[in-house]
């Protein structure tokens, strides 16, 4: 479209935002709004009375008898005098007090073991930098006052969500496609969100947030509005979560309702609930492809005396579908579990109703989840539920109409060609510069159903990253990082993982790692996993000979040994500028560049390594590695370091606040 049509299109969307805001403003006030209005009215009344007292001239009645007579204090050479009408009415001798030592500087920080992604902060106070700063640098204080007073959110969270949902009706008429935008996406967040809306039509289109951002309201940019919407949406989803399945209010729910909490709260990258690091990742209701999905085969022998195979009811057994053979062979399923444990577990889990024959709402909900994982394997379902016999599970399956044994026809396993050295070199040529992988862009798992990885739809290709094991693309994707096939310690450039500035992955690197939780040096030759396994050295904090506090080594360290990970808050560059002004004035900074989007700030939260001082001749060095899809900062020994030595490293170009460094 030409410029006139483009301006008319933008103006139309802006007018729609104004119209919807006016409609929302006409709605009846909620109790929360009423409380705010009453508080504002009372505040205005207090300010008016304070102004009246300030404008009125106070009168002071002086009575001479209220003041003591003029006297001199012993052991004082000078007197402090009080004058009235050029006459001395009172004086007190000045006594010089003995000098005392200054109070030591107070340092406060919270120790953490991994990076955190905090919420965007709005400053609520101004730090005290001393009287000299207030007198000499008034512009700096004025800028902080302006930053504290400015508020970006002019409407409540409830009204913001209502505005977004009301704007969706203009995109549901079929004329607006997911790719229709007011302006071309300017940030990675906007580009990724546009890709997500193409695969998930329930999400508001990008044009909605662009229209709200361009409506001359102080609500922030389109990127900030997207992040705000995602955060509020997660809070709203929590209110729809199912009751605790282990509590007294457990409900009889379907499989989808039972797994709602699991799918929305569990982080698929670090396997933590309410993950403080990957909160911005999209919630996708799809399984991540695996290279070797393992299925428990259906048993051919009874698992015990109460197994469904021993049932005398032949009519129910006829309902069973033909058995689907499993991939894994098990010698015998007899005595799979102790049947006496059923009644004991029932008494512990449900002491109010210990009857094994009665199905509680929690047991019914769990059954519907487990039968999806073990279709037709009633022995395994009974084993997992732990409070029901195998024949009881089978009888309940007959009532539910789920007697199919297996997943139907055996799906063909996708062929995954091994990446040879020639193909691997070609893959590195596409993604690396000079043999070293560019690790400056954050990784976001790609999701483009029924489409191959292409720069137009794949977030990994757009950010010049490899596809990882957390991506939803097929396992056979040629852009996936293949791992290494080393049989050595993986600490040289011969290792593809080391060359790509990343740590080895036990799911990909099968030759150097055995995949077990404990790192056994007998079966694992890899030494490129120390950051993810937190295998650092013991560190102590003590007064430094250089400046302030320092970090000291508690163990001997050889060259290239892993010392510790530099952890802290992952903040944006905008937040970095806001905090950096305060840190520069305080002459203290703990911020390091992590990638193009985030900076690690260890001022408030961090580890002991945050106390390591700068030196032009350091004994440690900094490496930024990609560990399981996340960029992390590792501190390594540059030379052999003895126990008790202070640690130094050159802050380098990634340090934020170079003017504070004394060479």
CATH class of the domain at 539-660: Mainly Beta
Biggest sheet, in brief?
4 strands, antiparallel
Low-confidence stretches: 323-337
Helices and strands: which structural class? Answer: alpha+beta
Give me the Rg, rounded.
34 Å
Kindly identify the CATH topology of the domain at 539-660.
Answer: Beta-clip-like
Count the DSSP helices. 19
Strand content: 5-15%
Strand order of the largest sheet: 9-11-10-15
CATH arch. level architecture of the domain at 539-660: Beta Complex
Instruction: Kindly state the percentage of residues in helix.
Output: 25-40%
Give a concise summary:
The protein is α+β, with helices and mostly antiparallel strands. 31% of the residues lie in helices and 10% in strands.
Secondary structure layout:
Elements: H1 3-25, H2 31-55, E1 79-84, E2 87-93, E3 110-111, H3 131-136, H4 138-149, H5 157-167, H6 188-199, H7 206-213, H8 222-238, H9 255-258, H10 260-265, H11 314-318, H12 340-349, H13 361-373, H14 378-385, H15 390-400, H16 421-431, E4 432-433, E5 436-437, H17 459-462, H18 496-499, E6 539-543, E7 549-553, E8 562-566, E9 569-572, H19 573-586, E10 591-593, E11 598-601, E12 605-606, E13 620-627, E14 630-637, E15 655-656
Spell out the key features of this protein.
663 residues, alpha+beta, 4-stranded antiparallel beta sheet
Structural account:
This protein has 663 residues and is of the alpha+beta class. Among the domains are: 116 residues, no CATH class; 30 residues, no CATH class; 86 residues, no CATH class; 53 residues, no CATH class; 122 residues, SET domain (Beta-clip-like, Beta Complex). The protein has 19 helices and 15 strands. The strands form 6 sheets. The protein has a 4-stranded antiparallel β-sheet, covered by helices on one side. A 3-stranded antiparallel β-sheet has the order 8-14-13, with no helix packed on it. Strand 4 and strand 5 form a beta hairpin. The longest helix has 25 residues. About 2% of the residues have low confidence.
């Amino acid at each position: 479209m030409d410029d006139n049509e483009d301006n008319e299109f933008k103006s139309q969307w802006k007018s729609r935002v104004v119209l919807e805001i006016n409609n929302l403003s006409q709605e009846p006030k909620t109790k929360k709004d009423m409380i705010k209005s009453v508080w504002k009215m009372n505040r205005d009344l207090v300010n008016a009375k304070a102004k009246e007292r300030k404008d009125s001239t106070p009168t002071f009645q002086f009575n001479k008898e209220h003041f003591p007579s003029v006297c001199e204090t012993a052991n004082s050479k000078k007197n402090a005098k009080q004058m009235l009408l050029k006459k001395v009415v009172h004086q007190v001798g000045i006594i010089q007090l003995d000098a005392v030592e200054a109070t030591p500087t107070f340092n406060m920080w919270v120790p953490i073991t991994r990076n955190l992604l905090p919420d965007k902060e709005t400053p609520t106070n101004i730090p005290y930098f001393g009287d000299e700063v207030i007198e000499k640098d008034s512009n700096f204080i004025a800028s902080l006052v302006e930053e504290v007073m400015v508020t970006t959110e002019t409407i409540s969270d409830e009204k913001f969500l209502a505005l977004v949902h009301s704007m969706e009706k203009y995109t549901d008429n079929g004329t607006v496609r997911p790719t229709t935008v007011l302006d071309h996406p300017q940030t990675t967040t906007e580009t990724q969100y546009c890709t997500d809306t193409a695969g998930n039509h329930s999400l508001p289109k990008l044009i909605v947030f662009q229209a709200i951002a361009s409506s001359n309201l102080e609500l922030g940019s389109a990127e900030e509005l997207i992040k705000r919407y995602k955060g509020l949406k997660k809070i709203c989803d929590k209110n729809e979560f199912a009751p605790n399945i282990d509590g007294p209010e457990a409900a009889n729910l379907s499989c989808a309702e039972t797994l709602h909490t699991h799918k929305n709260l569990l982080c698929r990258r670090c396997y933590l609930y309410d993950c403080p690091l990957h909160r911005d990742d999209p919630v996708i209701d799809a399984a991540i492809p695996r290279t070797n999905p393992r299925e428990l085969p259906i048993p051919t022998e009874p698992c015990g005396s109460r197994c469904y195979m021993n049932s005398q009811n032949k009519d129910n057994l006829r309902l069973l579908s033909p058995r689907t053979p499993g991939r894994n062979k098990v010698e015998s399923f007899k005595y799979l579990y102790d049947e006496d444990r059923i009644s004991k577990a029932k008494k512990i889990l449900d002491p109010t109703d210990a009857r094994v024959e009665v199905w509680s709402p929690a047991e019914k909900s769990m059954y519907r989840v487990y039968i999806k994982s073990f279709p037709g394997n009633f022995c395994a379902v009974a084993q997992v539920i732990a409070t029901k016999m195998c024949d009881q599970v089978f009888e309940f399956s007959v009532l539910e109409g789920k007697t199919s044994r297996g997943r139907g026809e055996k799906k063909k396993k996708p062929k995954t060609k091994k990446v040879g050295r020639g193909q691997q070199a070609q893959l590195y040529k596409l993604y690396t510069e000079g043999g070293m992988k560019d690790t400056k862009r954050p990784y976001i798992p790609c999701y483009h159903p029924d489409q191959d990885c292409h720069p137009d739809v794949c977030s990994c290709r757009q950010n010049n990253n490899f596809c990882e094991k957390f991506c939803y693309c097929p396992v056979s994707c040629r852009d996936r990082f293949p791992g290494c096939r080393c049989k050595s310690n993986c600490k040289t450039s011969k290792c593809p993982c080391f060359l790509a500035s990343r740590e080895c992955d036990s799911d990909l690197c099968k030759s150097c790692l055995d995949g077990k939780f404990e790192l056994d040096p007998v079966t694992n030759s890899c030494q490129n996993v120390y950051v993810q396994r937190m295998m650092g050295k013991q560190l102590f904090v003590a007064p430094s000979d250089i400046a302030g506090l320092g970090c000291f080594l508690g163990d001997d360290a050889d060259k290239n040994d892993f010392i510790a990970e530099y952890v802290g808050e992952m903040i944006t560059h905008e937040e970095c500028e806001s905090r950096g002004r305060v840190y520069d004035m305080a002459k203290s900074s703990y911020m390091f560049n992590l990638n193009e989007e985030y900076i690690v700030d260890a001022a408030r939260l961090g580890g002991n390594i945050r106390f390591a001082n700068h030196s032009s001749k350091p004994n440690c060095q900094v490496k930024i590695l990609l560990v399981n899809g996340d960029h992390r900062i590792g501190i390594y020994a540059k030379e052999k370091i003895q126990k008790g030595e202070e640690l130094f490293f050159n802050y380098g170009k990634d340090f934020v606040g170079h003017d504070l460094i004394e060479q």
